Amino acid sequence: MTMTGPEPLRVAVVGAGEWGKNHVRMFAQLKGARLVMVCDLEEPRLADVRAAHPDVRVTTRYEDVVRDPAVEGVVIASFAAQHYDQARRALEAGKHVLVEKPMTLAPGEAEALVRVARQSGRCLMVGHLLLYHPAVVKMKHLVTSGDVGEPFYLYSQRLNLGRVRNDENALWSFGPHDVAVAVHLFDAEPEVVTAKGEAYLQPGIVDVVFVTLHFPQRKMAHIHLSWLDPHKTRRTTLVGSRKMVVFDDMEPNDKIRIYDKGVDVRPQAVSYEDYLHVRFGDILIPHFGTTEPLRLECQHFLDCVRTGATPLSDGAHGLRVVRILAAAQKSLELDGAPVTVKG
Ligand SMILES: NC(=O)c1ccc[n+]([C@@H]2O[C@H](COP(=O)([O-])OP(=O)(O)OC[C@H]3O[C@@H](n4cnc5c(N)ncnc54)[C@H](O)[C@@H]3O)[C@@H](O)[C@H]2O)c1
Predict the structure, then answer these.
(1) Is 293's C-beta closer than 6 angstroms to any atom of ligand 1?
(2) How close is the Cα of 6 to the center of ligand 1, in Å?
(3) Which among 37, 128, 141 is positioned nearest to 315, based on CA atoms?
(4) I need a surface site. Which of 22, 155, 166, 264 has the fewest CB within 10 A?
(5) CATH superfamily assigned to domain 9-127+294-312
(6) 78 ligand 1 Cβ < 6 A
(7) Any idea where the domains of the chain sit in the sequence?
(8) In angstroms, what is the span from residue 123 Cα to ligand 1's centroid?
(9) Taking residues 63-72, what's their average pLDDT?
């Protein structure tokens, strides 16, 4: 008797640009998927796809994707302003959707997508890549296992001197990553957001942003985003009551360092020196998997479609992130005034 596995999911990728071409590569490789169509507005992008994958249909028209019954899953990596309309049309046509970050540019749009996905019974997942990064998986484990103690605060930097976008500002371009990680690690939503930034290169499009998320129980996340910086930095530092953890994604190997450092409060101490005891313990560099995060993300999408499980970065998680970004955008426009995150 020959055993056959489940049929591969027939996938279309929309947007084969700098990032979308990675989705094309991944869905062409993964066993649980069959890449059947690629859609992009630009002919040269499609010519590259045709050369690498001659069996895959290419098109410049999005209607071809939503109308083709052979397409079961749609991966959207087009411009951010297109995400809502394209994701909605795909879900309404009964397709499963993996939409790149930012999920949408307005909370009302993200709410609508969550609703349509629920009504259609289709999978809606957002490309919050870092949630699938083995280092973030490790950090989350360190939090849930109690190793870091009570997580107090985190700060992260996503800095670059590189691509300056004109379709998104630095907040909406880089921010979804760090906001998604903060919400994931604290397992909470911030109540208030403040953000300050400046547009140095293009009028009205901020290049540099400093965002602070204020969570319940005085937890805090501070996020520095910029595409106008001498350093290429991708670093998150989490400070807990027992340990401190640093995730540096620019490190080729030792991406996580766990510092057994902290200040122990000893209420029974007789002297002030003993009351606050500073601990300088060892530094541990844990070993964990090195699988490409995008592979893990795409595999998770396929698994969720197959089993009906809820993705880690489902529509509800994406909506939370969009609400926070919208509050940060409002604070930016109010010159850093605190803005309540509307749930
Ligand atoms: N998850 C991540 O780590 C990550 C990294 C980079 C970019 N992204 C996101 O991926 C998306 C794409 O980013 P990019 O850097 O590849 O941009 P890009 O400008 O290089 O590519 C976008 C592509 O989409 C195509 N496109 C736009 N509108 C379309 C439409 N209506 N129909 C078909 N094709 C259309 C464009 O022709 C272009 O080729 C953005 O939302 C970006 O924020 C995510």
Answers:
(1) no
(2) 30
(3) 128
(4) 166
(5) NAD(P)-binding Rossmann-like Domain (3.40.50.720)
(6) yes
(7) 9-127+294-312, 131-291+323-340
(8) 21
(9) 98
